[in-house]
Write a structure and sequence with these properties.
heterodimer, A: 444 residues, alpha+beta, five-stranded mixed sheet, 17 helices, B: 434 residues, 42% helix
Chain lengths: 444, 434
């Protein structure tokens, strides 16, 4: 009925050129990197500034300060009243927000393309001109505490995840939650925020990404005018965090919470990440995640546990290829109502063992490969998404060349490479196994 | 012979790049669609929206439309669930099926190279779904798991109770996802009935954006959708809105309480709708700093987020808000909300607030039309609620036409602080049930 090979054989257009052809990058004299992505379909622009600092760069005992500072960046600055940036973006019909991750902190606005200069004026002003008051600290700290209440304390799955990360990372700050531990979050103060700000916010620690209906020349002129005049902070050095020692014992987290209606199983392994000039291992793991747990209907875990044995109602494999330091690879299974967590763990282990013995279904591999090619076409529909790729990459140890090489590397990966990486990945000693369950008395 | 109406709406009228034109077409077989040709990227976004959704579930079959919709990608024609999924993957297409109380939506994305094969697969999903017994059981177990998890979630629970109180025995009073007992009892005959009820040609809105021409589209749509039964547009049962007033606490073991609050809203077609829309933006909307965000979050740090929204369902209109605060602070948040509601109803908005909201809303509107998938989603929704192509060009004028005295009249009529109904989940302190 349908020719399965059609999609695989006929996608012959030069994809790399398609997806990457309109990107320009340069560096300002003060060390600020700039990436410009052109998309002239609509007169809209996304303006983003990414700082090479995240929660994993926080001083010991100050967890949550990177994210707290992100909130405080909307307060008074040298030339802006508190809230004025947000009001100005709104007055121009735009939207804006900010985000903090383990490795980066970012700020963006999406506005009509002719408002770019105004955005740069405000964003550059708060890069070095933040003027906090003690009142800001008290009120905004309560907001962040409520954010933690909402996203973490009210969600047993999120609390479970914090414990898993803390157990997996023996020494690296990736084991500390981005929002911060509550007991430390409650004590963050003015000095903490200003010290962190002065230490990390400077043009030579930032990436400017402008995407949309703009030209590189126009962006360069504006960037030099607003960001180029800010002094570099030469005290900033490349990040060197505490790294993991050899892992010598598998860990296990059994998390009971009365609010859990649906137990699940997860095992997370330490995994290599994309590195400058060396992305093949990560690319192979991207395949491995898709092969094992990409689609419920066709992946190894889905086929076996959801369709054949029906022991699971949901399965997945999750891998985050971008990180400054080593990343994680997780296998997840949600057991059917009559299956215990021990049974699903055993069944999942047996499924992985069978996969390691039997190898990769080549038809599945080829379908995934063609989907990666297609995803580059679909990605072009969302220029903000492409902007995020560059911002995330450049704040996590990669270069523009690495970003542009990635789609082709994905096309070159072989099933043999995937199996080699799987052999290295599945080292139980470098793993944490988690069971999320209901209250103890009802546990199986 | 296809007719292309000369209604090219210019999305960017008033700016230099006024080159994006939506066309309204009628296929040879009589299907109407909106199409935007955008050949820059070799893919197309297609959206279908059927009027009539889960609220048409028979009372004892709640969740039938939801379960049926979940099964549309679980096998069709000659292909069982796994073969169907493998085919979508081989074509690098994406299908998504979604149901709400009033609509059933289909969002599809396909590469130009694979257009014919992808649409054949979509046609099978729409017209020959298999509803295989093992697929029904598998998806049923997933739905039951979702329901169990939601029952423990403070936000879902607050919404569920508020909705029950507001809509009573009407279908809107229960979740379109059904209940444990209703989902457990559904049979394949129920799913077939839901399929026959909802996927009918006469209730269909269609939009297509991307690498396709209006000329090619007509015959393609006839081939894709011509086999659907003509059907007549079923109407959701009418509803006499009677929302109680008070405050209900649902005990849940969480450190933070969630409050859902609201009262009657306003119809999308009411002449005062635009004034009400701006009013909601000022009170608790997104984009500009709303009064509630300023008072509850920025000044007092009582929450991470507070918002209100006007909800226009086919048979009911409500104005609904949501906030989450620590158990010992939710009472303070609720006090501020009541106070702001009273002040706004009594004193109205200022000229500056009105202007700031109008500037934001009119400036933000054109920015929505960015990306094939996004534009297609907007266009199908516009057709479904009966907006014409000219709406794109006239909408901002309607926003700007609202005057201070109009919006303040609407504030006095729409906002009823004494009619607010609160449902709070958590373990709040200092709150009295009413």
């Amino acid at each position: 009925m349908f020719n399965r090979l059609f999609a695989i054989l006929c996608l012959c257009m030069p994809l790399e050129a398609l997806a990457q052809g309109k990107t320009t990058d340069f560096v300002l004299d003060n060390g600020m990197q700039v990436v410009v992505i052109e998309d002239h379909r609509a007169p809209v622009v996304v303006h983003m500034v990414w700082y090479k600092v995240g929660s994993a760069d926080e001083p010991s005992g100050k967890s949550g300060i990177a994210h707290f500072l992100e909130h405080l960046m909307f307060k008074k600055t040298k030339n802006l009243q508190a809230g004025e940036l947000a009001d100005t973006v709104a007055a121009n019909g735009g939207s804006h927000n900010a985000f903090t991750s383990l490795d980066y902190t970012g700020y963006y606005q999406r506005v009509a393309a002719d408002r770019l200069e105004l955005m740069m004026q405000m964003e550059s002003d708060r890069m070095t001109g933040l003027q906090l008051s003690p009142d800001d600290i008290v009120v905004e700290r309560n907001v962040v505490i409520e954010e933690r209440n909402q996203r973490t304390e009210s969600a047993p799955g999120a609390l479970f995840n914090e414990h898993l990360n803390a157990a997996l990372f023996l020494n690296h700050p990736y084991g500390v939650p981005i929002v911060g531990w509550m007991h430390e979050l409650e004590t963050l103060n003015y000095d903490d925020a200003m010290a962190f700000y002065k230490q990390h916010y400077a043009p030579n620690n930032a990436i400017l990404v402008v995407a949309g209906d703009v030209t590189p020349d126009a962006v360069k002129t504006l960037a030099e005018r607003y960001y180029g005049v800010l002094p570099a902070n030469h005290a900033i050095t490349p990040r060197a965090r505490r790294q993991e020692p050899p892992h010598r014992a598998a860990r296990r987290v059994i998390f009971h919470d009365e609010r859990v209606a649906q137990p699940f199983f997860i095992r997370t392994y330490l995994a290599p990440e994309r590195n400058n000039g060396n992305q093949r291992a990560a690319a192979a793991l991207v395949y491995l995640a898709q092969i094992l747990g990409g689609s419920s209907a066709t992946s190894v875990l889905g086929r076996t546990l959801q369709y054949d044995t029906k022991q699971a109602i949901y399965t997945s494999a999750q891998y985050r290829p971008m990180a400054l330091d080593p990343s994680t690879f997780s296998l997840v299974a949600v057991p059917a109502s009559d299956v215990s967590l021990q049974q699903i763990e055993d069944a999942l282990e047996a499924t992985i063992a069978n996969f390691m013995a039997g190898g990769i279904d080549i038809e599945l591999f080829e379908r995934i490969k063609s989907q990666f090619r297609a995803s580059e076409i679909y990605a072009m529909d969302n220029v903000s998404g492409i902007a995020q790729r560059y911002g995330a990459a450049l704040t996590q140890g990669l270069t523009v060349a690495d970003v542009q090489a990635w789609p082709q590397i994905l096309q070159e990966i072989t099933p043999e490479e995937v199996m080699t990486l799987a052999e290295q990945l599945f080292d139980e000693k470098a793993s944490v196994t988690g069971w999320l369950m209901g209250p103890r008395e009802q546990a199986q | 012979m296809m007719r292309i109406l000369a209604l090219g709406a210019l999305l960017w009228a008033g700016t230099v790049q006024a080159d994006v034109a939506v066309k309204s077409i009628t296929s040879p077989g009589g299907l109407s669609a909106w199409v935007l040709e955008e050949p820059a990227i070799p893919f197309t976004a297609l959206n279908l929206m059927f009027s009539g959704g889960a609220a048409l579930d028979p009372p004892d079959k709640r969740g039938a439309a939801f379960l049926m919709t979940g099964l549309l990608e679980e096998g069709a024609g000659d292909l069982d669930s796994q073969a169907f999924a493998a085919e979508i993957e081989a074509l690098s297409a994406s299908f998504s099926f979604d149901v709400s109380d009033d609509t059933l939506s289909v969002s599809v994305r396909f590469l130009t190279e694979n257009r014919t094969e992808t649409l054949a697969l979509l046609k099978a999903a729409l017209t020959q779904p298999r509803f295989d017994p093992d697929a029904i059981e598998r998806v049923r177990q997933q739905v039951l798991s979702i329901l169990a998890t939601k029952a423990q979630d403070p936000t879902d629970t607050a919404q569920r109770v508020w909705t029950e109180q507001a809509f009573g025995d009407h279908a809107y009073g229960t979740s379109y996802q059904g209940t444990e007992s209703s989902i457990t009892a559904l049979t394949s005959a129920d799913l077939l009935a839901a399929h026959q009820n909802l996927l009918v040609r006469d209730t269909l809105s269609i939009s297509v954006v991307g690498d396709i021409t209006a000329e090619d589209l007509g015959p393609i749509l006839d081939d894709l959708l011509g086999d659907l039964p003509a059907g007549s547009a079923l109407e959701t049962a009418p509803l006499q809105l009677d929302i109680p007033t008070g405050l209900t606490v649902v005990d849940m073991p969480t450190p933070q309480s969630v409050a859902i609050f609201g009262h009657a809203g306003i119809d999308r077609n009411h002449p005062d709708f635009f004034a009400a829309y701006i009013l909601n933006t000022i009170l608790g909307g997104q984009g500009i700093e709303s009064r509630l965000t300023a008072e509850v979050r920025e000044k007092r740090g009582l929450t991470y987020g507070i918002s209100t929204v006007l909800i226009s369902k086919d048979q009911a209109n409500v104005m609904l808000g949501q906030v989450a605060s620590a158990n010992d602070r939710i009472n303070a948040a609720i006090e501020v909300i009541r106070d702001e509601w009273r002040k706004l109803a009594r004193d109205g908005v200022t000229a500056e607030e009105l202007q700031a909201a109008q500037t934001y809303l009119t400036g933000a509107y054109p920015l929505r039309f960015d990306g094939n998938s996004q534009i297609s989603r907007i266009l199908v929704g516009m057709q479904r609620i009966g907006l014409g192509l000219d709406y794109i060009n006239t909408r901002n004028a309607k926003i700007n036409a609202v005057t201070l005295s109009e919006i303040n009249q609407v504030a006095a009529q729409l906002l009823k602080p004494e009619a607010l109904n609160f449902v709070v989940t958590g373990q709040p302190t200092g709150l009295k049930e009413e």
